[in-house]
Specification:
Layout: H1 2-27, H2 44-47, E1 87-91, E2 95-100, E3 105-117, E4 120-129, E5 136-144, E6 163-165, E7 170-178, E8 183-192, E9 197-206, E10 212-223, E11 241-245, E12 250-252, H3 255-261, E13 264-268, E14 272-276, E15 280-285, E16 292-299, E17 302-308, E18 312-314, E19 319-330, H4 333-339, H5 353-370, H6 373-387, H7 389-404, H8 406-415, H9 420-434
Parallel strand pairs: 1-6
Antiparallel strand pairs: 1-2, 2-3, 3-4, 5-10, 7-8, 8-9, 9-19, 10-17, 10-18, 11-12, 11-14, 13-16, 14-15, 15-19, 16-17
């Protein structure tokens, strides 16, 4: 009986915890990255390292023809004499983005349905931003071998428009780069209504007259934030930083470990790399079949999380498409599952995962019907009470019988006060006659 009551109270406590989490989702102020007014915009290139992923000798031989890829040093920062990059504004029903023509890089990302505070709906949660002191961007590009032309994130692309807006169910935003040698790259960003998913396709056309060999990469740069834990800010108790999935398990990489041990690197299929915080994440998800090399490093308080895929050979006159998926938004279970079921590992339920996961699934289903978190929590609580009704009813009947035989139990205790074994036997006989479960 006591065990049943304990189980009921534990379930009730868990529901209160889920209610608190749902309330925090709606009302908690989202911490903003530290903004420094001491750094002018001209210093941004120094704050954002223009490092490029390195093509190494560990590329799978089966994926390419020819000799193994040599080590290549990272390219230097773009020269100051280069023309300033144009900014392309992209808005959907859920995202407000800015994409720079320098590398076709996502330099700003705001979530239109998530204000920092409900009283100030104009102040949106910002996940990416390259404003001074507020570093964060998503870069994509290509690395080539043997000094061949490549469209990396330092390359200047062109765009036919300065603004794109989603008016239908999907939106394609193209960027183009053409080299004097005859190499052309079209980079397409595809957006879907209601989704925080961004599909990226880099179409390479080789008109150079000789084979081209290279690989596609994506990398996320974010300022590393160090919080002091506070009982008034639940975000300080959640993990904030990079996470890598190797196809079997997810590894969270702490800031102190990266500073102490250096870069973390793995090669895996069906993996991904992301930067997570309490309610939101930015993720890079390559095609599942590819053996990608993932790495995370920290430099000057900037975390660089990247993935680079296997090299491909493109014959003269041929073309190839390099595809990947990005995600910039809240930890919505359904959308994460649609990209990769393993992305649910970015949501941390703690040591109560086995119970919290199913309960949150049920809570989400009920919320989808009633469109109100408070009402959904009440209905789920009622459903749980109904599920445990039989146990509660049996417990109540047992308690009533125990109260009824209480005088007889005291009489037995007086009669057998010097005989513990006799008292135990008499009590067991009483329970059997009255059909009472003392547990």
């Amino acid at each position: 009986m006591d065990n049943q009551r304990l189980l009921i109270w534990a379930t009730f406590g868990l529901m209160l915890w889920l209610a608190y989490q749902a309330w925090m989702q709606d009302y908690e102020p989202v911490p903003q990255p530290a903004v420094s007014v001491e750094h002018p915009t001209s210093q941004i290139p120094d704050q954002i390292p223009d490092s490029l992923p390195i093509l190494g000798v560990d590329e799978p031989a089966a994926a390419v023809e020819g000799p193994a890829l040599p080590e290549q040093p990272a390219l230097p920062v773009a020269a100051a004499s280069e023309p300033s990059a144009a900014m392309v504004r992209v808005t959907t029903d859920v995202l407000d983005l800015v994409i720079s023509t320098k590398g076709a890089t996502i330099t700003e990302a705001r979530l239109k349905k998530y204000p920092v505070h409900k009283d100030h709906p104009e102040q949106l949660v910002t996940l990416l931003n390259t404003a001074a002191g507020d570093t964060g961007q998503l870069q994509t590009g290509l690395r080539a071998t043997d000094g061949l032309p490549e469209a990396n994130h330092l390359t200047t692309f062109t765009s036919s428009r300065q603004r794109y807006e989603l008016t239908g169910d999907a939106l394609d935003v193209p960027f183009t780069w053409t080299d004097d040698s005859g190499m052309t790259v079209e980079k397409h960003f595809r957006f879907t209504r209601g989704s925080y998913r961004i599909d990226v396709a880099q179409v390479v056309r080789n008109e150079t007259g000789k084979p081209w060999r290279g690989a596609a990469y994506a990398q996320l740069q974010r300022r590393s934030k160090a919080f002091e834990r506070s009982m008034f800010n639940v975000d300080t108790y959640s993990f904030d930083g990079p996470i890598i999935y190797d196809g079997e398990k997810a590894t969270k990489l702490k800031r102190d470990d990266l500073l102490k041990d250096g870069a973390y690197s793995i090669t895996a299929a069906n993996g991904w790399v992301a930067a997570i915080e309490h309610h939101f994440l930015s993720a890079i998800v390559p095609p599942p079949a590819d053996d990608e090399r993932y790495s995370v490093a920290i430099s000057n308080d900037i975390v660089i999380a990247s993935s680079i895929g296997p090299a491909q050979r493109i014959a003269p006159g041929a073309e190839a498409t390099f595809a990947s998926t990005l995600f910039v938004g809240p930890k919505l279970q359904r959308q994460l599952d649609e990209i990769s079921p393993s992305l649910k590992l970015t949501v941390d339920y703690g040591w109560l995962t086995l119970i919290s996961g199913p309960l949150f699934w049920l809570l989400s289903k009920v919320h989808a019907l009633v469109q109100n978190w408070g009402l959904a929590i009440i209905l789920v609580t009622i459903l749980i009470k109904l599920a445990f009704y039989k146990l509660t009813e049996a417990s109540g009947r047992s308690m009533a019988k125990m109260r009824k035989i209480q005088p007889r139990m005291k009489a037995l205790q007086e009669r057998y006060k010097d005989d513990r074994q006799g008292l135990s036997q008499a009590m067991m006989d009483l329970y059997k006659r009255e059909k009472v479960n003392p547990a």
